[in-house]
Design goal:
Helices cover 61% and strands 13% of the residues. It has 301 residues and is of the alpha/beta class.
């Protein structure tokens, strides 16, 4: 390899390192912000899901249309991905988990609600019906967005458009661990509520030490039908919103780690290329010196 080519590659690698370091810094700032939002939202999500857990023991709740369990012939799938790549295996893991969820069903029996372009592109290319696609660019997504989506999901479930609503997202565990997770959102049940509560409980900290939520065996809610018709969809929206916060924290954490790995690798490549450049240059200098010395000796004889 010519010295000029090696020098060009060294320059390109150093410029790439500058870009990845800048992206790493930006992702680190966003990661801290979204992590704070996710951690701050966990107590509220847990409280909301605690209400759902208590309502699941109510006779009115058990008779509510959103808790009706029926044979699943049609599936409503909510997929939470990012709009951008460069986040390691984050999106591919979510899409793989979503593909596993729709595998038992025919394409025409699945309705997709996509939050983020990566998942939308995947399912649209495969002929699935994408009922709604929302860009996932903002970090400060208002709760009203999830309430609107919850309303559409609830209306579709009640109308029989689908028999189950399943959500796939990335559950934030730590900066270096994000797990592709799938949860059934509708129909509601005591077991599924317990799973959601377990998801929002962090592994460490004071909230992780709280007692497990338990639903009372049975009680009646006065004017239960009207109350539950308003309360259950709103609480479902809170849980869905928290899944979005977890996905946001996971996205920026994964991107920061990926950019750090890219920065470290570019440094390593630049170092190796510099060594190669110096080695070839030194060999060329040694060869030139040897030729000069050999020529001098030839003249002296």
């Amino acid at each position: 390899m010519a010295l000029k080519d090696i020098k060009t590659k060294i320059g390109a690698t150093k410029r790439m390192n500058t870009v990845t370091r800048a992206m790493e810094a930006v992702s680190a700032v966003k990661m801290r912000k979204t992590q704070a939002m996710a951690f701050a939202g966990r107590p509220y999500a847990r409280a909301a899901l605690a209400v759902l857990t208590r309502l699941s023991g109510s006779g009115n709740a058990l008779r509510h249309p959103l808790t009706a369990v029926r044979e699943v012939k049609k599936l409503g799938l909510v997929v939470l991905t990012s709009d951008k790549g460069l986040a390691g295996a984050l999106n591919s893991g979510i899409i793989k988990r979503a593909a596993e969820a729709v595998a038992p069903y025919k394409v025409e029996d699945v309705t997709i609600y996509e939050y983020g372009k990566k998942g939308e592109e995947y399912f649209a290319r495969r002929g699935y019906t994408v009922a709604k696609a929302v860009e996932n660019k903002r970090d400060d997504v208002p709760l009203s967005v999830m309430e609107e989506l919850t309303r559409e999901l609830s209306e579709g479930f009640l109308a029989g458009t689908y028999d189950e609503v399943f959500v796939v997202y990335s559950n934030f565990k730590s900066t270096f661990e994000q797990l592709p997770t799938g949860r059934t959102l509708l129909p509601l049940s005591r077991e599924r509520v317990s799973e959601l509560v377990a998801d929002v409980r962090p592994a460490k900290g004071k909230w992780s030490e709280e007692l497990e939520l338990k639903a009372p065996s049975s009680y009646e809610v006065e004017s239960g039908g009207d109350i539950l018709s308003v309360l259950i969809p709103r609480l479902v929206a809170v849980s869905l919103y928290h899944m979005l916060l977890e996905s946001k924290a996971s996205e920026h954490s994964a991107r920061m780690v990926a950019m750090k790995s890219a920065s470290d690798k570019s440094k390593e490549v630049a170092r190796d290329l510099t060594r190669l450049y110096n080695k070839i240059r030194q060999a060329a200098i040694t060869r030139e010196v040897s030729e000069i010395v050999g020529g001098r000796e030839a003249l002296s004889t």
